[in-house]
Amino acid sequence: MRSRLRAHGVTTPWVVIVTWCLLSLTAGAVAKENTATDARRFPPSYITIEGHENVTPDQWTDPRVCGQCHTRQYEGWNGSMHSNAFKDPVFQALWALGEKTDPKLRNHCGACHTPIGVSTKTVEFHPDQGLHGRFTAPDVAAKGVSCDVCHTISGTNLQKTAVLEHGNASFVMSPGNTKRATLDDAKSPYHETEYSEHHAKSDFCGNCHNIFHPGNNFPIERTYDEWKYSIYAQKGVQCQDCHMVPVDVAKQVADKLQRPEELGDLGLEGFAGLGGPWRKVVHDHGFVGGNAVVTAALNTWDANNEETLGVQTNYQEAIRRLQSAASLKLEVGAKAGALHQLKVRVTNERAGHNLPTSLTEVREVWLEVVISDDQGRELMRSGTLDADNNLPKDTVIFNAHAVDENGQDTHVPWEIVRFVDVNTIPPKGYKYGKYYFNLPADAKSINVVARLHYRSFGQKLADLLLGKDAVKVPSVEMVKIEHSYPVSELSVADASGSGH
Ligand code: HEC
Ligand code: HEC
Ligand code: HEC
Ligand code: HEC
Ligand code: HEC
Q: Does the beta carbon of 251 sit less than 6 angstroms from any atom of ligand 5?
């Protein structure tokens, strides 16, 4: 297979992949790296279905059915980003732009956002609906990453991927009556159960939380990789240990670098299912990151609609999660004459991957800094959103700068060939923001206020995807530090400079 692809002497299934690659990318980059060893059923994704020739939507169960006996899991999942993975209007808009560029992106994007839709080939595109077009899928597939998606996954395909790593939907699904997770003694009146080691590990999440460009293999979203080479992985701390427990517990996990079960009694006990025994640990299913904030802003949160109630809890947890992630430290020193420098150190204290992670080319984590003196004069300001909700050019921002094959800036994933600048903060690592200001001769003290903010994406991208002024992108203050320094404390770092 490999050599056939290299030689471009391809037969049917490859024609699709290669034609697409040739259209959108430099052919060399494509042919060189692809080491896939089998014909993919849903290319370019790596989804495989075990034991079925063809699958239909009725082979998966609606989450509401599972929720009848698994109330707690349902309440967490309902309104989560996993439950919104298909409906998410931001996703739908970008996916539609992708579809109009190249229809083969349908399976690539859909594989993680609606695995049931892709594997049953039931996703439909309506180019004339909405701003950019809209996708529909049968009800059970439109539930995105649902209970029955995760709990019928029976393994990983990583050995088949071009990069020999988890990603691009590298999972095996075995839809049917057997539900898999990490209880080795579970008995259910409704379904068979099977112990699955895979579900206990980050690898399970990595099948979807690692994205490489399906043509040029460039790692676009690397949450799993970032975790894999972090201190957390070295200590055996998994994604589940932070994202399937309340944020208060996740904070202890991050600070002590221990798994929840090693931390003693944390109040995680309960029933895992109706009629089952009392369990020491039941897992949260809200999978909260930072994004519930956007869901709320997009009006998918409706107090009268039972379907959206989980968003409220997830919204609060998302804010708590963001507010637990980082710390700030200030260092002020004289440079030369009246010129002074402020350094703000931002440490990624509690994210098990880079801060931010995943869509680092669109996520925005930035510093807002204001320096004033005792007479109320503003000496320096940076990172304050303008009237149009945009960031000033000089803002210190922690993200990645993506470009296309011509070196032009791009935010659309299918155009990305490389990052020209990566300024995300590694786990337990730190980065500095540096600022300069002039100290007036008559100032007696200065006051510094620094804030770290998060938002899912900038206003311009929101305007492009959702329509001008459709939504004002909200931001969350992750952490704030404020400190006053008497002028006498601002030590003269540069011996040649003594102006005051
Ligand atoms: C009629 C009630 C009922 C329904 C409906 C139900 N379950 Fe269960 N399920 C249980 C019980 C009871 C257990 C065992 C709980 C225990 O042992 O603590 C269980 C266990 C599980 C487990 C743990 C398996 C393991 O080995 O770790 C998973 C996963 C699961 N169910 C998923 C689902 C999914 C997905 C659905 C919907 C397709 C569903 N359940 C529908 C009652 C139900
Ligand atoms: C994104 C994947 C994912 C989704 C979606 C998901 N689960 Fe789970 N679930 C897991 C994982 C992973 C575990 C095991 C966590 C561990 O042991 O570390 C788990 C554990 C469980 C368990 C065992 C008891 C426990 O809490 O550990 C049950 C029961 C369960 N899930 C039911 C559900 C139901 C019902 C839904 C839908 C409302 C659902 N799950 C949605 C991934 C998922
Ligand atoms: C390998 C699985 C995978 C593939 C393939 C994938 N995504 Fe995603 N996508 C994710 C995950 C996981 C997230 C959540 C990351 C996060 O929020 O930090 C996400 C988040 C997003 C978001 C952000 C949504 C929001 O509300 O902020 C957009 C937009 C998106 N994806 C679009 C796409 C498009 C378009 C494609 C195809 C070009 C695609 N995705 C392919 C897994 C995938
Ligand atoms: C079948 C693919 C799939 C699997 C498996 C999966 N995820 Fe996700 N996950 C997604 C997608 C897609 C999104 C983003 C949906 C969107 O933003 O539109 C997402 C979103 C999330 C978010 C919310 C991100 C935010 O910005 O708030 C977190 C946290 C998360 N996943 C953690 C996990 C963890 C932990 C696991 C493993 C236990 C896991 N996921 C397994 C596909 C998956
Ligand atoms: C030590 C705790 C910890 C571990 C382990 C951890 N995370 Fe996170 N995660 C966080 C914190 C804190 C945030 C919020 C800050 C941020 O966005 O990075 C977060 C955010 C996220 C987000 C949302 C990012 C965004 O802004 O769009 C996703 C998706 C996610 N995590 C997935 C994962 C996956 C997948 C794993 C395992 C490979 C994992 N996390 C491991 C703590 C953790």
A: no
